[in-house]
Specification:
By secondary structure, the chain is of the alpha/beta class. It has one domain: Carbamate kinase (3-Layer(aba) Sandwich). 41% of the residues lie in helices and 27% in strands. It is built from 10 helices and 16 strands. The chain has an 8-stranded mixed sheet with strand order 5-8-2-1-11-15-16-14, with helices on both faces. A 4-stranded mixed sheet has the order 6-7-10-9, covered by helices on one side. Strands 3-4 form a two-stranded antiparallel sheet. Strand 12 and strand 13 form a beta hairpin. The longest helix is centred in the middle third of the chain and has 24 residues. The chain is globular.
Length: 297
Amino acid sequence: MTTALTQLDAAAKASVLIESLPWLQRFAGKTIVVKFGGNAMVDDDLKRAFAEDMVYLRHAGIRPVVVHGGGPQISAELATRGISSEFRGGYRVTTPEIMAVVEDVLGRVVNGELVHLINEHGAYGVALSGRTQDLFGGRRRGAVVQGETVDLGLVGDVVEVDPAVVIEALDDGFIPVISSIAPDLDEPGQLLNVNADAAAASLAVALGAAKLVILTDVAGLYSDWPNRDSLVSHLDSSELEALLPALEAGMIPKMAACLEAVDGGVDKAAIIDGRIPHSILLEIFTQQGIGTEVVAS
């Protein structure tokens, strides 16, 4: 009986491995941009699983690039320092004092820890930010709240991408880990706090990535949230564009990033549940994947 069970277990493992073959062939040598966020960013076990996934992709011949924000960590550090902050229209109003904390937390805490976890498996991770060799260029933006435009301070959009430093790192065999800040194109020397989902999409387009993957804290896109039966596994850009205005507020930036990516030439974009260990591998190397996938119309 033990031998029979062992053989069944081995056969199941072999089946899982062979299922990945067409995806290994498809993505070999291709770039995949992953936006790291949600529970995966704050849970120690999930952080380690994510780092393992990135190293696995690298050894599988894929070129992974990680873009991250750090909202929970920034909020915690601001509270520790006794600095108050507010959100308007879903964006953190960013004063110069808060921007200094944003840059410190993203670079020292979030980026530093993730690079360290990757490098537990070899010297693969390299820390970058949107200011490294002017990777990102940004411009300030406001937000519309109750019909009026409000000033968000040092909050911006990524409007230019020079991916040279990322391509160089990838060509040298590294896994770039990029924090979402951007130099202000209109005010030299000033940094802007930019949305990591949008930054990841802009970078994916600039790199000609095969796929953009955004980690979230839900199973995927629900067309009629909170109806759990309305989970959408696949849709094209025209269908997403029609749905976008009616989506739950927290999902709009993520789905808008997916739309920007596929409209910009990225083959596919997906949002997946970062609460599931090794969700990246499930999304890339299995037939059905997980979460919600978006393709061009």
